């Protein structure tokens, strides 16, 4: 199952082109990221990356997944902003005028 942390891990792997670089940017052990990636590939029954001598390249399944991940991350960020608005974390001013009658 895809969890928020794994979504960000996969996005960073794609952006940086390697698990090692992604782990450095995320401050997470590369072995931990690799274990989760391998578990996800096993769960999906398909490799997400081609392992190349100079990094990783997305497979067709990986391309489909990263498109879904990036949309999910955008939706998540948008939802968080909307919830912040509900909590009153954004402030504004309201002016009220009245007309006195005789």
Keywords:
mainly alpha; two-stranded antiparallel ribbon; Arc Repressor Mutant, subunit A; 102 residues; elongated
Number of domains: 1
Mean pLDDT: 88
Number of strands: 2
What is the terminal-to-terminal distance? 69 Å
The CATH level-2 architecture is identified as Orthogonal Bundle
What is the approximate shape?
Answer: elongated
Q: Portion of residues in helices?
A: 55-70%
Task: Trace the largest sheet across and list its strands.
Answer: 1-2
Name of the CATH superfamily: Winged helix-like DNA-binding domain superfamily/Winged helix DNA-binding domain
Describe the 3D structure.
The protein has one domain: Winged helix-like DNA-binding domain superfamily/Winged helix DNA-binding domain (Arc Repressor Mutant, subunit A), CATH 1.10.10.10. The protein has a two-stranded antiparallel ribbon with strand order 1-2. The protein has four helices and two strands. Helix content is 62%, strand content 8%.
Question: Which secondary structure elements does this structure contain, and how are they paired or packed?
Answer:
Layout lengths: L3 H13 L2 H8 L3 H15 L4 E4 L2 E4 L1 H27 L16
Antiparallel strand pairs: 1-2
Helix pairs in contact: 1-2, 1-4
Could you give a short description of this structure?
The protein is 62% helix and 8% strand. It is mainly α and 102 residues long. A hairpin with a 2-residue loop joins strand 1 and strand 2.
């Amino acid at each position: 199952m895809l969890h928020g942390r794994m979504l960000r891990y996969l996005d960073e792997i794609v952006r940086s082109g390697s698990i090692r670089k992604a782990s450095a940017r995320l401050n997470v052990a590369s072995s931990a990221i690799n274990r989760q990636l391998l578990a996800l590939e096993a769960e999906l029954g398909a490799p997400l990356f081609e392992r190349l001598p100079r990094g990783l390249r997305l497979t067709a399944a990986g391309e489909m997944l990263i498109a879904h991940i990036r949309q999910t991350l955008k939706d998540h960020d948008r939802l968080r902003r909307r919830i912040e608005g509900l909590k009153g974390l954004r402030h504004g001013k309201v002016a009220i005028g009245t007309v006195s009658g005789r």
